[in-house]
Specification:
The protein is an alpha+beta fold. It has helices at 2-101, 104-110, and strands at 128-130, 137-139, 143-145, 155-157, 169-171, 178-180, 184-186, 197-199. It has two helices and eight strands, in the order H-H-E-E-E-E-E-E-E-E. The protein has a two-stranded antiparallel sheet.
């Protein structure tokens, strides 16, 4: 009986030892596999970094080559572009000079509108009449523009002004009254409706 108990105990301890050694071996295998997987991942990461650095290098070389080629192309195109720009600038200056030499009013006068009537009264400003140049308004005889350099068409009577049609008739101090120049007299007396004069 003792022999049987001893044999059973020995078998039990042998079984426990076997299980323990098998468990240790499995753990060692897992650790080994984990180390192998870690090494594989590290190697992949390392090779990926090397590949990335290689691609960056190739890209930089390619960009540098393109910059060199682009600089050559720009250098080749600079001369014709400069000449072309100079020609455009000269033609533009000629156009400006041509425009300045011929005022817009002169261009308009070549093709007068049928609605433009010289010497007609301005619809808004009194004592302002249409000139022979379409679009241009001038002061009526005996008047002058208060601000000739602006678009303001307000006028004022100016005594002593010579009549534009009757050279020997001048504006008196009284508005709209014309008098003969010195040494002349009206043909029909003092009536301002007829401004013809004759020597006294």
């Amino acid at each position: 009986m003792l022999l049987g108990l001893g044999t059973a105990a020995a078998a039990f301890f042998l079984l426990q030892g076997y299980k323990r050694s098998r468990k240790v071996k499995e753990e060692e295998n897992k650790k080994y596999e984990q180390r192998q997987e870690n090494n594989r991942l590290e190697n992949q990461k390392h090779y990926r970094n090397i590949s990335l650095e290689r691609y960056k290098h190739y890209l930089n070389v390619l960009l540098e080559d393109h910059k060199f080629i682009l600089n050559i192309i720009l250098a080749i195109l600079t001369v014709p572009l400069t000449v072309f720009g100079y020609i455009l600038w000269e033609n533009y200056k000629k156009y400006l000079n041509k425009s300045d030499s011929q005022p817009i009013s002169a261009i308009v006068a070549k093709t007068p509108s049928k609605s433009w009537i010289p010497d007609s009264l301005h619809p808004k400003y009194s004592n302002v009449i249409a000139s022979k140049t379409e679009g241009k308004w001038v002061a009526a005889p005996g008047y002058k523009l208060l601000r000739p350099d602006t678009s303001d068409l307000k006028v004022i009577w100016e005594s002593g002004q010579t009549h534009p049609i009757h050279p020997n008739v001048i504006a008196s101090k009284k508005e709209k009254i014309w008098i003969p120049a010195r040494g002349y007299k009206f043909v029909t007396g003092d009536d301002n409706s007829d401004l013809r004069v004759q020597p006294e």
